[in-house]
Amino acid sequence: MTPLVIDASVGLKWFLPEVHSIISRRLTLGNFELNVPSLFYVEVGNALWMKARRSELTPADAETIFSELSALPLLRHPDAPLAATGLNMALQTQRSVYDCIYLALAIQLGTQVVTADARFWNSLSNTYWSTSICWIENVP
């Protein structure tokens, strides 16, 4: 199995009909070992709350999606050991510590973080870390 780190932008697309949803869902069916930092669940939960607040989802739908997400066989990694590296990367890249924690986990595991967040992808595409991030459309 190929290990990958999945960020919240990809995880949301498993449940919501958005651009790249079909490609994102393919990750759950393939020969991939899907890794996430614990922060993943907080970020997805917050995004679901925001969609419910804007009436894009009902509160019940948001809770159902979160429950289904929590049941997926994702390998969870604690955030604390990644935080210092994430902060260092954030200071160098001007990206959030949240984004950089995914990147730090990918580097720790010797793989890539898969993202559908264009700003995150674009900000790292010409940096030292470009080999550690994968745009959702480029997943093998």
What topology does this entry show?
Layout: E1 2-6, H1 8-13, H2 21-29, E2 32-37, H3 39-53, H4 59-71, E3 75-77, H5 80-93, H6 97-109, E4 113-115, H7 118-124, E5 133-135
Parallel strand pairs: 1-2, 1-4, 2-3, 4-5
Helix pairs in contact: 3-4, 5-6
Number of helices: 7
As residue ranges, the low-confidence spans are none
Largest β sheet strand count, sense and barrel closure? 5 strands, parallel
- Determine Rg (CA atoms, Å): 14 Å
Order of secondary-structure elements: EHHEHHEHHEHE
How helix-rich are the residues, as a percent range?
A: 55-70%
Looking at the structure, the CATH topology is Rossmann fold
- The largest sheet has its strands arranged as 3-2-1-4-5
Number of E-state strands: 5
Distance between termini? Answer: 12 Å
Strand content: 5-15%
Give the overall form.
globular
> What is the total number of structural domains?
1
How does this model look, in words?
The protein has one domain (2-138): Rossmann fold (3-Layer(aba) Sandwich). Helix content is 55%, strand content 14%. The chain has helices spanning 8-13, 21-29, 39-53, 59-71, 80-93, 97-109, 118-124, and strands at 2-6, 32-37, 75-77, 113-115, 133-135. The protein has a five-stranded parallel β-sheet. The longest helix is centred in the N-terminal third of the chain and has 15 residues, at 39-53.
